[in-house]
Design a protein that fits this description.
2 domains, alpha/beta, 4-stranded antiparallel β-sheet, 14 strands, about 600 residues, Alkaline Phosphatase, subunit A, 22 helices
């Protein structure tokens, strides 16, 4: 019995120690973020994070514990290879998750969850953000770390083949069974009402320290466990209270078409929707950002309509696209595009326009099957999809596909060759996506340089478009799919991080102007359709911002949290930690309650689709 107990304690202790040591290694890897952090905070990260490490170690030991119980009555040399196979698989899985998490955090700013697994459906695109040499190095380190994890477990497993029947088998069986059952305590997180969750390790007002304390394996497992059951997620308020708070916040009908003074666009205009990859407000001078990065978009905005208080709903393209096109808020723990059976029930600008005789088309220089985009766009009433496979191999020059100068030229030709009106064409750019490899060098910073490159393509495109006969009846909408973490110390929950450019331009714009109403991407659908005098009643969440009967606000999500902003204040809330991150002029928690109600009703809607 003692040998079996020592075996289980050894396995548990080894994983617990390695999980704890992963935290300072993670912080060292991200020295640009944690380099100036005091030593005491490093120790706090390890201490507060150890509760998740204890839980994860218990999960891993649970099966060996049960097998050890069985070994009291069934001995044999075959226990050694059985345990070795199990530990080899666990070591490899832990290594893959840990190393992938460390690398992805640089790009995404949150610890690993179920999101990356969704992108593995297109593995080439999933790693396109990472340079090839770095991918090779990561794989090498994954194998080395897996070998390091496995080494003592391999030695411990050798002893299992020599286990003999205890002198008191019934007592040994009972003791080992109790020991195995006791693993439920760290797995659950104690005996309190609240069960183990990622938020239990949060201890600091610096979110990056809370992130460092998270066990990445637990984070992924937790995310997977709640990625499907939407009806039980985010039960933040009593249903009656959520209903009452949501009612004045809802979008949709009855449709209200603008009065003459608020009519910005010619009704019946053609629509070109240009979704700009990772364009951040921090890179646009008109939005209090850096000057000189987007001179062309700045000029276009001065001649068209600039929305100064527009916010991205999320941090990923797939969620941004459904927010823009379907007026559907992004979800913190899921992507509705992942579920075709649900996404096909969404409304869409393109669906509404197609029902009113518009020809519809989508252009993307990358893989249109990435993140289920193709199925989504087809469901949204897109007649034709043009993607990477429609370009010669010689033009697929970047990791993501065809660079923006080529696709903007294709976009122009699609408009030029359009014989019937009205039409809607959607174009998703890609060159301003990591790794920011573009055929231009104006800025030392790679992100800013890639944005400047796409901006130069915008300038050329608009100059050419103005010469076409359709210019006078065409509206061009420029809007980002999401922002980018620039400056690089910005955090996922920050309000400034989510601020993005949105510009309406083209010959169909009746007069230039500036709109400073607070809105997010989801409000584009109802607002645009109202300007075109097309009903938008079925857009439950999208608000027409010229409708005075609606409350105007911006709503965005980040992993396990949300932000709610209006003209009077803001509230940003971390659902995992159950803590308020920002309470700007929200002393009575009015906006916090509205944001909770909005998120809860979103998941109610998601569960019923």
């Amino acid at each position: 019995m003692k040998r079996r107990i020592c075996f289980l304690v050894g396995v548990y202790g080894w994983f617990f120690i390695m999980f704890v040591l992963q935290k300072p290694l993670f912080m060292l890897f991200h020295g640009d973020i944690y380099g100036s952090t005091p030593v005491g905070e490093w120790l706090s990260v390890m201490w507060h994070g150890s509760i998740l490490d204890s839980s994860m170690a218990a999960y891993i030991v649970a099966l060996p514990a049960l097998l050890s119980v069985a070994s009291v009555y069934w001995q044999g040399k075959w226990w050694t290879p059985l345990f070795r196979i199990y530990f080899a698989v666990i070591a490899l899985v832990v290594s893959v998750i840990t190393l992938s998490d460390a690398v992805l955090y640089s790009y995404w700013g949150f610890r690993i969850d179920a999101t990356p697994l969704f992108y593995l459906a297109s593995p080439a695109d999933a790693v396109a953000s990472i340079p090839a040499w770095q991918t090779v190095v990561i794989i090498l380190f994954i194998l080395l770390y897996a070998a390091l994890l496995l080494w003592p477990l391999w030695l411990l497993s050798a002893r299992a083949g020599r286990w003999t029947k205890p002198r008191k088998p019934l007592l040994s069986f009972a003791v080992l069974l109790v020991l195995a059952a006791s693993l439920f305590i760290p797995i659950r997180g104690g005996f309190t009402v609240s069960t183990m969750n990622v938020g239990k390790v949060y201890f600091s007002d610096r979110m990056v320290l809370n992130h460092a304390a998270i066990n990445p394996v637990f984070s992924l497992m937790s995310s997977l466990s709640k990625s499907e059951d939407f009806s039980t997620q985010y039960r933040l308020l009593e249903p009656e209270e959520a209903d009452a708070l949501f009612e004045p916040l809802r979008g949709g009908g009855p449709s209200v078409f603008p009065a003459d003074t608020l009519q910005w666009v010619k009704p019946g205009a053609n629509v070109l929707l240009v979704v700009l990859e990772s364009f951040s407000g921090a890179a646009m001078e008109s939005l209090d950002g850096i000057s000189g990065v987007m001179p062309n978009l700045e000029k276009i905005a001065s001649e068209g309509i600039l929305f100064t208080r527009c916010y991205a709903n999320s941090f990923r393209t797939d969620r941004g696209l459904t927010s823009i096109l379907s007026g559907y808020p992004a979800q913190p723990t899921a992507s509705i595009m992942k579920y075709p059976s649900k996404s096909q029930s969404l409304p869409a600008i393109s669906k509404s326009l197609r029902s009113h005789g518009y020809d519809t088309q989508f252009l993307y220089g990358g893989d249109a099957d990435f993140t289920n985009m193709r199925s989504y766009f087809i469901s949204m009433g897109i007649d034709k999809i043009v993607c990477d496979r429609d370009f010669p191999l010689s033009q697929r020059l970047s990791k993501w596909g065809v660079p923006d100068d080529v696709t903007f030229d294709t976009f122009y030709k699609l408009v030029e060759g359009q014989s019937d009106e009205p039409f809607m064409k959607i174009f998703l750019t890609l060159s301003s996506h990591e790794p920011f490899d573009v055929p231009m060098c104006r800025f030392e910073d790679k992100y800013l340089n890639s944005v400047a490159y796409t901006d130069s393509c915008i300038g050329v495109f608009m100059e050419r478009l103005e010469q076409l006969p359709v210019w006078g009846n065409t509206l061009v909408v420029f809007v980002a799919d999401h922002a980018f973490r620039y400056p690089y110390n910005v955090e996922n929950h920050d309000m400034d991080y989510h601020r993005i450019p949105m510009v309406w331009a083209g010959g169909a714009v009746l007069r230039p102007g500036v709109v400073d109403t607070y809105l997010s991407q989801i409000d584009l659908a109802a607002t645009l359709l109202a300007q075109l005098h097309i009903p938008y009643d079925d857009f439950t969440f999208s608000k027409n911002i010229v409708d005075p009967s609606r409350e105007h606000f911006a709503f965005y999500t980040f992993p396990d949290g949300f932000g709610y902003i209006d003209r009077e204040g803001a509230a940003v809330y971390d659902c995992a930690a159950q803590s308020v991150l920002v309470a700007q002029n929200d002393s009575n928690a009015v906006r916090l309650r509205k944001g909770k109600a909005y998120l809860q009703k979103l998941y109610d809607d998601l569960s019923h689709r």
